[in-house]
Amino acid sequence: MIFPSLIGSAFQALRANALRTFLTMLGMMIGVAAVILMLAIGEGAKAMVNQAIESMGSNLFIILSGASTSGGARVAVGSRPTLTYDDAQAIRKLPLVREAAPVVPGSAQIVYGNVNWSTSVFGVTPEYLTVRNWEIESGGFFTESEVRSGARVAVIGRVVARELFGDEDPVGKIIRIKRSPFQVIGVLSEKGQSLDGRDQDDTVMVPLTSAQQKLFGTPFPGAVRFIMAQGESERVMDAAEENITSLLRMRHRIGKGEENDFTVRNLAASAQAQAMATNVMSYLLGAIAAVSLLVGGIGIMNIMLVSVTERTREIGIRMAIGARRSDILWQFLIEALTVSVMGCLIGIILGVGGALLVEKMAGLTVVVSVSSLMMATGVALAVGLFFGFYPARRAAGLDPIEALRTQ
Amino acid sequence: MIKTTGLAKDYVTGAGAFHALRGVDVSIDPGEFVAVMGPSGSGKSTFMNLLGCLDKPSAGHYHLAGRAVSEMRPDELAAVRNKLIGFVFQGFNLLPRLSVLDNVALPMLYAGAGHAKRRARAQALLKRVSLDGKTHQMPNQLSGGQQQRVAIARALVNQPQLILADEPTGNLDSETSHEVMNLFTELNRDEGITLVLVTHEMDIAAFARRRIRFLDGKVVEDTGVAA
Asked: Any residues with CB less than 8 A from the CB of A145 and at least 6 apart, and which?
């Protein structure tokens, strides 16, 4: 019965000192807004990484030519082609490997009519789609026999389709890759950004042999730049890596104690490392923002202490006419809570608004989660209670006679 | 109504113990109108604070309306102040940010009364002290005499049996003083409210039917009801 009146009188007291109340609230507002904004940015980064990991394909290995260690004067990873199409076929047959796809990458200018576009061109086999968990949007993909015969067919990504063809249907059209004519037989579905920020839809795929022979001539016939392999499941990744390593060592006739001439990388592991890094970043951002909430809380305590001192006489009068200590305690506690809750609400509006602004202006992905709103509100309430309690208890502990005597 | 036996109050100061009240035995019946007099430092303010349950005695006993107040806990004392006693101060002691109506209704809030009930009762009392036109004004918009009448309405709002007035006319001119005193006299005569009033002025004390004079923490004169 007394609480609605207490909230009313809290507003009254806070209005009486509007500027001071606003400044006190400001600390809370900034704190809550900072927490929400930082969490939104952190969550956004996490969502982006997760999406990139998903688009990459799951349980992936990338097998590169060359040694991973670079002691002495060894050649860098991938610089000397030691991997072949046959290596990829052998890896495919390993029981712990679901699929493997050899890749010959390069970049080329593509021309259609009078439009041209420079993009990355991948020479691949049909298994590549499976490994990368990629779909065909329209048309189809080239077949095993087209790979064997070195057919001049191409499957293009969404960006290339848009840039070269606009609204036209690309399937069936002839494009020129490095001046060689290729027929477009399919368009890939949208994939988005990769972990390193490349647009994966800005790509063209041609049969592996076509790339080797017609586009990116190499002094090492049959060599591929890298092989992408997919493990059977997440649990067997380490064993699969060992199997691939020993298989390739055997195939490449590498003796005991000699160094590998290839490198196997577990992409899932490095993606997880990156996800962890974003996690750590979002915790850090949140922690920094939480400090500003704490500072806001101390501001509330400061002002409430001043307020109690200023209103000592009022407290004395209230006690004389029958206020219990608990009534006084609640009065000041509710004032502190009102400041923190209002600051929190405005802070939420500012934080969410700021997050949307960041998304628009900086192009970052931001995710405002309900849990971050609830956390910010909870912390603001706790801060209000914690820092409001001491001044309120001081008010309630005043001696009525002393309080009445104060001018 | 009031019965004190051997009531004493000591204050510990830097210079040692100060005996503000040294064993006071006073008995006041319901419906009495008592003036408490004495120079400053005589102990009359300490006595009033004890009567008003704002302070606890160092020794002795105090019974108010048959209840042993000197043995009560702080929350019980707050309830006694709220329901049994009405205070009227020299400086009016209205809350400056509350309207006249809210000031009068405030003790009922602490008594736990509902909003509608508080308003109705406060309205009625403001009418009783002839201020029903000022309900929504702020205290500082009123004259001293009007503010004191608001304070009296507030003191009456929970229907107390006792009103303690600490130099209620100290800040008023003689004409308004007499108006306020007439109001007190009416309340005492018509509603049987026990009145204890501290004053320096003889003409104000003359409104009362009994005078108690303090000096050095003791009662040195008690005229009894007959006066």
From this structure: none
